[in-house]
Amino acid sequence: MANNSAGNKRFGDMGMSKFPGERLGLPETGTRSVGRIGRRIGAIVIDWALAVVIMMLISGKDYLSLTSAPGGQFGILGVFVVLQIIAIPIIGGSIGHRLCGLHVVTLRGKHAGFWRPLVRTALLALVLPAVVWDSDQRGFHDKIAGTMLLRA
């Protein structure tokens, strides 16, 4: 039997990351590490709930029931988008991100600016780009915008 040393490489030797963010030079845990799924879900739940409350205050309608008008859901999405686009450049992430200890930065670790949140949020609103990830747990919306979600 031939010696197949190429097939015996360790996981890290094959160009694959041992943890999310390793390829980007980020730490495995703690500050400046990639924001994990639990924090991300918590952040989006907070942001969506805030959008629902704001929409209910604006419209005076109840959007918490299953029988609420479907058109109102687009209004909630609109409020959600506006909150994202405003908050990311101003406070470095959405309100949910910040409450969950996350922030949005460029690949160089700089402030996201103003156009990146627009692109990122437009793709986030489409949902699918946000649920397709790479090995660094960066969603397609972050990859296109040139951003990443890190622990603060």
From TrEMBL:
Q: Which residues form the signal peptide?
A: none
Domain of life, per UniProt, equals Bacteria
The alphabetical list of record keywords is: Cell membrane, Membrane, Transmembrane, Transmembrane helix
Any one cellular-component term (Gene Ontology): plasma membrane
Pfam families given in the database record? RDD
Q: Which residues form a coiled coil?
A: none
Cite the InterPro entries for this sequence: Pra-immunoreactive, RDD, UCP021697
Topology versus the membrane, per the UniProt entry? Multi-pass membrane protein
Q: Where does the UniProt annotation locate this protein?
A: Cell membrane
Principal subcellular localization: membrane
PANTHER family named among the record's database cross-references = PROLINE-RICH ANTIGEN HOMOLOG (PTHR36115:SF6), PROLINE-RICH ANTIGEN HOMOLOG-RELATED (PTHR36115)
Q: What is this protein called?
A: Putative RDD family membrane protein YckC
Question: What is the organism of origin for this protein?
Answer: Alpinimonas psychrophila
